[in-house]
Amino acid sequence: MLPPSNNLPAPSHPEVHGHRGCRGLRPENTLPAFLHALSLGVDVIELDVVISADKQVVVSHEPWLNPLICLDPTGESIPLADGRNYNLYQLPYATIRRCNCGQLRHPSFPEQVSQPAHKPLLSEVFSALESATLRLGRPPAKYSVEIKSSPAGDSLSHPPPPEFLALVLAELAAAEVLERTTLLCFDARILQLAHRLQPDLATCFLVEDQLPWASSLHQLGYLPTTFGPNAATITPAAVHALRREFPSLRLVPWTVNDPADMLRLLALGVDGMTTDYPDRLLSLLPA
Backbone phi, then psi, for 57, in 5-degree steps? Predict the structure, then answer.
């Protein structure tokens, strides 16, 4: 039996997790995306974090500038082959902030409303969203913060796990959002360390296509709060097996954008879904 992690209160309906804010509607991982997702009524704001050369916690999916969505610090386009040359872990945040990562509409998201936007600091996101919840008169926001770590990236595109985790936990503590945050990662090392250092922190183990799921969870060594598999791998049999062996484990698959898939997963009783189009999922849920 795996030792349990912190259990969050069960939601009254499946949670809507706005992926990178609402990537299908606004530029990903930017303040406009987070604020729009909040105004739509998402339950959880999902975002990714990397580290700059001057040890700032920056909200970004890739630890480099993605040429599909970012201009370089001078406002010029980045050739597709050159994106990884702009390693954020080797750039000070002042340089990163000059890069416009909202003006270019992502080619995979035709509904996205483009607008100038920078890669914000995690502290900046917390400040903006905490203020916005007060203006909207809604309960405090909940957060899912994914640490973009991998063994291959240690000391090249991000700090090693102890330093990376310490920087992120310090931001969560400073913003006083630890109790409302779930820490996500594909890298088991981050989650294992987080569980040792902060056993009450909610965690989510993300997996791509590892089946059976139970094997991945046993290898993790403790029971996280949430399990986040690729939605494409979900079958009724897999869900039944997970519920039977880990009845307290919350199931929140990613990334679910098609309404037909949303309905299929709702019928399977998932605890939430991460989606680029939170408006679509919200329209399927009872008011």
Answer: -90, 110
β-partners of residue 275 are: 18
Q: Name the DSSP letter for residue 88.
A: G
Q: Are 198 and 225 in contact (CB under 8 A)?
A: no
Predicted pLDDT of residue 211: 80
CA distances from 17 to 58, 88, 110, 271 (A): 20, 26, 21, 11
Q: CA nearest 28: which of 60, 56, 64, 57?
A: 60
Q: How far apart are CA 271 and CA 239, in angstroms?
A: 11
**∠ CA 118-107-52 to the nearest 5 degrees?**
30
Torsion angle of alpha carbons 201, 207, 213, 216, nearest 10°? -70
| Measured distance CA(163)–CA(169) in Å, rounded | 10
Instruction: Domains for the chain: give ranges and CATH numbers.
Output: 15-64+120-284 (3.20.20.190)
* Residues 13/285, Cβ–Cβ less than 8 Å: yes
- Summarize pLDDT for 182-193 with one digit per residue, the tens: 999 999 999 999
Assign 79 a pLDDT band (cuts: 50, 70, 90).
very high
Quick one: which of 214, 11, 190, 30 has its CA closest to 113?
Answer: 30
pLDDT tens for 18-77 read 999 999 999 999 999 999 999 999 999 999 999 999 999 999 999 999 999 999 999 999
Could you tell me where the beta strands, DSSP code E, fall in 104-257? 142-147, 181-185, 202-207, 226-229, 250-251
What does the alpha-carbon distance between residue 149 and residue 154 come to, in Å, rounded to a whole number? Answer: 8
